[in-house]
Design goal:
Layout (H helix, E strand, L loop, with lengths): L2 H11 L2 H10 L8 H5 L5 E6 L4 E6 L9 H4 L5 E2 L1 H9 L13 E7 L2 H6 L5 H11 L5 E7 L7 E6 L2 H6 L14 H5 L7 E5 L1 H13 L1 H6 E7 L7 H10 L7 E5 L8 E6 L4 E5 H9 L21 E4 L4 H4 L7 E5 L2 H12 L3 E5 L2 H5 L4 H18 L6 E2 L8 H18 L7 H16 L1
């Protein structure tokens, strides 16, 4: 069944309430918030469920007119990569791993404060400030942590340099960023915007633009962030408990910053500050404990549908020497590359050419995500669970991919069961030890 066939079948044969509930129940919801942001009758809202630490859409059946628009834009159950690539780039990608691109670079913001306090070089922050101050955009859809609820993300439209800087650094928690599409749709007619998001956010946004002309006209810049997977709120609570802290004692949290690869910084309400090296914070993340279940079914690491994609440069030569911050920068569209080059000419960012083969060698996830996906689909189907429909080319898995697929699903399952979570710390030590032996 093709993506379009599936979408038509769902919209014709099911009530929206039934399908929305099924997508969430079956573990296909990415939590991106696109359905909420695009709903014309305000019948949906994102609700946090404390039991699994995720956001899911909740439908007000009295408001819903069963238009099915939310299902048409949902990246959770389907993404027609072939059609979207043809619409955005005019061609299918020749490179399976990177997707369509104009050029690849290694770069960073020229402002030392922005660079040092970002996740990896501050390129996205610098590009947004440049686009705002040059009048290319009137605002940017970005995410910050709430001041009154510091463990909760807050998607909003930033309209000043200060607000953009406030949103720098990655958030290792569920972020329903696309709920703020509603504010873009309700903005003044002539206003233009940039959107920053993970691959699932960009997928949902591109699908929404394909069915809403007004939204497509307003969004002029799509900035994507590399993502192997995201974590539930339970991951943050787990890290805090390991530090003998309670969530209610936290005044502010930064998952990244203070150079590269950075530190996780926690400011307590009593004024005390704790820092956790990124290498320690990320160890549980790398093993997929407390990962969002839907992330295991994603085939897009580098935000292939963005205008510009940025991510950590996990290259030996960079890791050996870099302490402040650099980003891999993939310019995908003409508009994306033009804005990057103009930002360079105006001294906002510095970039150097990077061999695309080096991009593909950055970290372990670049190849494994394209190979592992078929294994993860296979494991889901073994247990009679649905998988998303993609119209794209994937790589054939090998034996190691099957072993890794089993490990990922085991760890996601363990951390989803309250009675199994006591085993996460000892299991992580064993698994990290085996990984270090492999590297040695």
């Amino acid at each position: 069944m093709t993506v379009s066939d599936l979408s038509q079948k769902i919209s014709m044969n099911n009530k929206v309430l039934e399908v929305i509930e099924r997508i969430a129940r079956d573990g296909l919801c990415t939590g991106c918030g696109t359905c909420v942001g695009i709903c014309p009758s305000d019948a949906l809202k994102m609700v946090r469920f404390n039991s699994n630490g995720c956001h899911f859409p909740q439908l007000d059946n009295e408001r819903c007119n069963n238009c099915g628009l939310c299902l048409r834009v949902c990246p959770g159950y389907s993404v027609d990569f072939k059609t979207l690539n043809l619409d955005i780039f005019g061609r299918e990608p020749e490179d399976i791993l990177i997707g369509n691109y104009q050029s690849c670079h290694l770069g960073h913001a020229t402002d030392d404060d922005i660079r040092y306090n970002a996740a990896s070089g501050g390129v996205i922050t610098a590009l947004l400030i440049f686009a705002l101050e040059r009048g290319i955009i009137d605002g940017a859809l970005v995410t910050r942590m709430k001041k009154d609820q510091p463990l909760e993300p807050e998607p909003f439209i930033a309209r000043t340099r200060e607000e953009i800087i406030e949103t720098s650094k990655s958030k290792y928690c569920p972020v329903p960023a696309n709920v703020a599409l509603k504010k873009i749709l309700n903005s003044k007619r002539a206003e233009k915007f940039a959107v920053v998001g993970l691959p699932c956010h960009i997928q949902g946004l591109r699908k929404a633009e394909s069915v809403h002309k007004g939204l497509k006209e307003k969004i002029v810049l799509h900035l994507g962030i590399f993502c192997s997977h995201n974590d539930t709120f339970l991951q943050t609570e787990f890290l805090l408990s390991n530090l003998l802290l309670r969530a209610q004692d936290v005044a502010k949290i930064d998952y990244r910053g203070e150079g590269w690869p950075g530190m996780m910084s926690i400011l307590l309400k009593n004024g005390r500050k704790l820092s956790l090296p990124f290498s320690e914070m990320i160890s549980f993340h790398k093993l997929w404990f407390y990962a969002l279940p839907r992330c295991a079914l994603c085939c897009d690491l580098t935000a292939e549908l963005a205008d510009v994609s940025c991510g950590d440069p996990w290259l030996p030569e960079v890791m050996a020497n870099e302490k402040i911050g650099k980003s891999i920068v993939i310019c995908r569209t003409k508009i994306g590359k033009a804005i990057c080059m103009e930002a360079v000419r105006n001294g906002c960012i510095e970039i150097e050419e990077l061999d695309p083969n080096k991009v593909k060698r950055s970290g372990d996830m670049m190849k494994t995500k394209k190979r592992d996906i078929k294994v993860r689909f296979f494991l889901r189907r073994l247990f009679n669970k649905p998988t998303p429909v993609y119209n794209t080319v994937l790589m054939q898995p090998g034996p190691i991919n099957y072993l890794r697929g089993v490990l990922v699903y085991l760890n996601v399952w363990i951390s989803s069961k309250r009675y199994m979570r006591r085993f996460i710390n000892p299991l992580s030590r064993i698994e990290l030890g085996l990984l270090s032996l492999k590297k040695g």
